[in-house]
Amino acid sequence: MSDSERRRISDSTVRRLSIYLRFLRELRRQGKSLVSSREMAEGCGTTPAQVRKDLSLFGSFGKRGQGYGVDELSLTLEDILGLDRRWRVALVGVGKIGAALLGYHDLARRGFDIVAAFDSDDRKVGRKVSGVEVRPAEELPRIVAAEDIELGIIATPPPTAQAVADELVEAGVRGILNFAPVEVDVPAGVSVRTMDVALELEGLSFSLAGDRSGARG
Amino acid sequence: MSDSERRRISDSTVRRLSIYLRFLRELRRQGKSLVSSREMAEGCGTTPAQVRKDLSLFGSFGKRGQGYGVDELSLTLEDILGLDRRWRVALVGVGKIGAALLGYHDLARRGFDIVAAFDSDDRKVGRKVSGVEVRPAEELPRIVAAEDIELGIIATPPPTAQAVADELVEAGVRGILNFAPVEVDVPAGVSVRTMDVALELEGLSFSLAGDRSGARG
DNA sequence: TTGGGCTTGTGAACGCTTTCACAAGCCATC
DNA sequence: GATGGCTTGTGAAAGCGTTCACAAGCCCAA
Where are the alpha helices (DSSP H) in chain A? Predict the structure, then answer.
């Protein structure tokens, strides 16, 4: 697939592809070999038409009358998502969230290895957290570049998030997962996703606040 | 605002409202009193027209030729988002992520109090984590109902997530933040948001994989 | 070989979200 | 009080994503 084709794919489609893959891996563990778009939709919280349309953006992977081959489609989605390899990730900020991420083995299971961790707090530097040594923030540029790290996770307080993002990009990182509750700017060609727990809770709060009369739906 | 008006608001708008509010609070700390849609757009990663359209869905809060009053708009957005009160939250699963959330004070700062934590592991039950006592999973239904808890956070392994969601809903919870990497089903009238760190990294992986020729954009 | 049941792949229709473009309106200055 | 510069609020247009609906195609049974 060419870059220009890839660019046309929407964020929501990519997100669903990940969900499909997660579901397919579960089916694989259960030993299922075929799955229909209807079953995928039920397991992934969407519609059969949506599943088929999403997949059709990349090719024809199913068999009419039968469904999709679980193994085959898993591999295809892994290819599409760029998961046919492992990714080297740098973590910046070893506070509560950063430490939790270092200990969260689902990341490695899904292809993302945190190979370096940084913190500006001297008391944390040198300690090992879940097997990864915490390094001083000053070494970030050198190590990220030297170790060919392509993804970064920002788990610092908001005021330093932008500076960290700048350093990561300068050192060659082209994808950033940001846990600081602030939007960070990056140059074109670099992707950022921000995860803000409180922001998600606020979304729930909105739904509930609009529901004061006990309405259903 | 009536429920039916509220229902028309899209998820993406609600998400942006939260981002606007986050930004406005920062401006308030800086002592700024007026802000234009252009400045908000720059600080929130969107466009001025989008900012104005989002706000216009709820009313006219600005002053032509000047912009929006920072204090006034903050309060308005808090009202809209249902943040004119505090929310009582139950946390289920005190593993790495759960413990990190208990120690993450940004939640309390933004109106969400984790007032109960549950775990099925006897070794964790009874311990206090960041000031909250861990209770046995069996007590969840009773305590959530008795304490008028309206929001739940699931931080258990995937296989138990659905059962926990069912218990939370049964006990009266109408909003769930799910950290288990699996989609959970809930009845109409209950909202769920799933946060999956690996899934977000996969999104970044997709962008980078489609970018092998060093294209810009 | 034929018929029935089921499922994919996809153009077209639909509906929602974003962007555009401009009238209405505020403020400072002269 | 009139002028110029700036900003909001909003219909209309454009752009996207989702849903519909059905032809094409597979498999099983008789």
Answer: 3-7, 11-29, 37-44, 48-56, 70-81, 96-102, 106-109, 140-146, 158-170, 197-209
